[in-house]
Amino acid sequence: MDSSRGAVLDSIREMYQFGVVDYCMFAAMLILSAACGIYFGFFKRTKAKDTPTATDTSDLDLGENPPTVGSVESKTPISPFGSSTIDEYLLGSRKLKAFPVAMSLVAGYISGVTILGTPAEIYNFGTQYWLIVVPIILTGVAVCTIYLPVFCSLKLNSSYEYLELRFNRHVRSIASVMFVIDQMLFLPMIIYVPALAFNQVTGLNLYMIGAIVSLVCIFYTLLVGICAPNASKWECLHTNFRFPFKGGIKAVVFTDAWQVVVMFISVVVVVIIGTIAVGGLDVIWERSMEGGRIDFFNMSPTLYGRQTFWAVLIGGFFYWTSFNSVNQTMVQRYMSLPNLRTAKLSIAMFTVAMGVFVSVCCYAGLLLYGKYYDCDPASVGLVSTNDQLFPHYVMESVGHLRGMPGLFIAGVFGAALSSMSVILNSVSAVLLEDVLRGLFQLNPSPLKANIFVRCCVVILGLTALGCLFIIDKLDGILIVSATLAAIANGTTGGIFTLGMLVPWSNTKGALVGGIAGALLSGWVSLGNQIASGAGEIVARKLPVSIDGCIEELVGNITLVDPVYPDESGVFPLYRLSYHWITPIGVTTVLVVGTIVSFLTGPRDLRHIDPELISPVIHRLLPVESFSYFGTANKNATIFNEEMQAQASVPVDLTVPYGPANDLNGHVGKEARTRW
C-alpha cells in the first residue's frame, strides 16, 4: 500500500469514528442496562402475597435436601433484595406479561450476529436468505401446537427435565452436554461481535476489546451471586450454588425488552435516513437488480448451493423450530408466563417481531449495496471483514447525528454482555446439575459445588477469549454461528420431537438416535468448516465494483474475477449448505430412534402418561393411557383447562381416578384437573 493511499484510508477511518457525544450515549446505555439488573436483583421488594406458604410448594425447586413442608413458610422471609424464592428467581413467579417476554425472546435470538451478519449476507449473496421470514412464521405455529402445550402442562423449570420424565437421566445428560457444547461454541461469537463493531468505530485493538469484554463479564458473573440478607441458609446455598446470579428472569426479561426496543429503533432510524440519502426505494431496488442482488426464487434442486429456495425454507424451519421449541433459554421465558393462552400470545408477538426485525436487517443489506454498489469498502481496505460493513455504514450515514452511532453500537455491545453473562451462568449450572451430579453421579458439598461453578465460569470465559483468535479468521459470522449451532439444535430438537411425537419410542431409541444425530451432524458441520478453512470450499460471492471510488482511495488496486477451486474432489457431505445440517440431525434422531425403539421393544402405550405426549398425537393413544394422566410429574398440581380442549378423549368426571378405569374412554376426575 503506497503512503498517499494509506493516508487517505487513515483520514477516512478517523472521520468515521466516535465523538464525545457517542461515547456518552454508549456509556449511558450500558449504565442503564446495569441499573435495570441491579434494581430487580437487589432492590425490588418481593410482595408478601407472592411468597409461598406451607401449602404452596409445587413451584419450588427443592433440590436434593429440601426443607420440610412446614418449614417453607417460616424459613422463607420476605426479602428486600431480589427474588425471595427459587420460583420467582427462575420464572418470575410465572406472573410476567406477554409483551416484555416476547421482546426478551427477540433479544434471546437477535444478537450482534444477526444485526451485523444478515446485512453482510444480503450484500454479498443476494436476497434469497430473506425468505427465512416464512419459516419463522411457521415455527411459531409449530411451537404453539406441538411443544408448548407439553411444557406448560408439566410446569417444568428446565426443558431438560422433560427428557428425564419421558426417558431417563442418561438422555437428559446427553441433551445437557449438547447444550453445553453449543453454548461454548457460541461464546466466542458473543465476544467477537461487539469487539468487531467497537473496533470499527473507535480503532481500538480487536483483541484488547475482546479481553475487556470477557474479563468484565467474568468478574460480574462471579460477584453477583451474593446472598440476600435474611435469606434462609438452604435458599442462600441453593441459589448461589445452582444458579449463581441474583436478579432472576424478571431482571433479564425487562432489561432485554427495553434494550431490543432501543436497538430496533436505532436500526430503523439508520435505514430510513440511509434510504432517503441514497435517493429512495426505487434507486436501491434498481441498483440491486443491476448488481444481481434480487433473487427470491432460486429453485435449484442442488444441496450444495449456499442459499436456495428449498434450503432456506426447509433448513430454516428445522433450525428455527429446534431452537425456539426446546432450547432452555427460550423455554424458561415461556414458563415465566401465567398460562398457555398468554404464552401463545407472547410467541405470536415474538414471531411477528422477529419477522419484522429480520426483514429490516435484510433490507439493510440492500441499502448497503445501494450505497456501495460502485465502491466496495472491503475491496479498498476501509473495512477488514465484510461483517464490519454495517458499523462502517452507520458511522458514514448517521455519524453527523451525534449520539446515534453510540446508541447503535451500545445496543450491540449491551446485548452481547447480557448474553455472555447468561450463558456463563446457565452453562455452569448445567455442568453442575446435569453433568457432574446427573451424568457422573457425584454429589459435591456446597463449598466444592461453589468452587466448581465459579471455576467453570472462569474457564469458559477464558476459553471463549482464546477462541476469538480463530473466529477472527473466519469471514461471515452469520454462517459460522448457524453452522456450529446446528449440531446441538438438530440433536436436541430431534430427541424432544422423538419423545413428543413418537409415543412408541423408548429410552434405548432416544440414546442411540441422539448419539447418531450428534455424530452425523457434527461430522458434516466440522468437515465443512475444515474444508472451508483449507480453501477447498469457497463461497461464491456476487461481484462488486470500485469504479466509483475516488482515485486516491483506489491507488493501484485492480479487481479481477475470482478463481474458485474445483470442489468435485471434496467429500459430498462437506459441500452441503449449512441450512441442511439441522434437518440432517433431526431426521437422523427420529429415524434411528424409531427403528431402535421397535427393535428393542416399543413403549407400551397403555401405560404412558399422555401429558408427556404432544396433544396433536393424543388421538393415537389408547384410551387406557388417560387413566395415567399426570402421573409422570409429581410437582405439577393443576391441569390447565386450556389443555383439556386439546386432549380429544371423552371424559366422565364421575369415574374415580386410577388405572382400573374401563376401556370406554372414561378418565378419572383427578387426571383431568391437573395443571
Describe this entry's structure for a reader:
It is globular, with a radius of gyration of 26 Å. The longest helix is centred in the middle third of the chain and has 36 residues. Helices cover 62% and strands 0% of the residues. The C terminus is likely disordered. α6 crosses α21, α9 runs antiparallel to α19 and α10 crosses α19. It has a single domain, classed as Sodium/glucose cotransporter (Up-down Bundle), CATH 1.20.1730.10. The chain is mainly alpha-helical and 675 residues long. It is built from 25 helices and no strands. Keywords: Cell membrane, Ion transport, Membrane, Sodium, Sodium transport, Transmembrane, Transmembrane helix, Transport. One of its GO terms (molecular function) is symporter activity. It comes from Anopheles quadriannulatus (Mosquito). This is Sodium-coupled monocarboxylate transporter 1. It is a multi-pass membrane protein.
Query: Quick check: average pLDDT?
Result: 76
Instruction: State the order of secondary-structure elements, H for helix, E for strand.
Output: HHHHHHHHHHHHHHHHHHHHHHHHH
Shape label:
globular
Derived from helix and strand composition plus strand pairing, the structural class reads mainly alpha
- The CATH topology name reads Sodium/glucose cotransporter
CATH superfamily placement: Sodium/glucose cotransporter
Architecture in CATH?
Up-down Bundle
Count helical runs: 25
Count of distinct strands: 0
- List the domain count as a whole number: 1
Tell me the strand percentage band: under 5%
- N- and C-termini, Cα separation: 69 Å
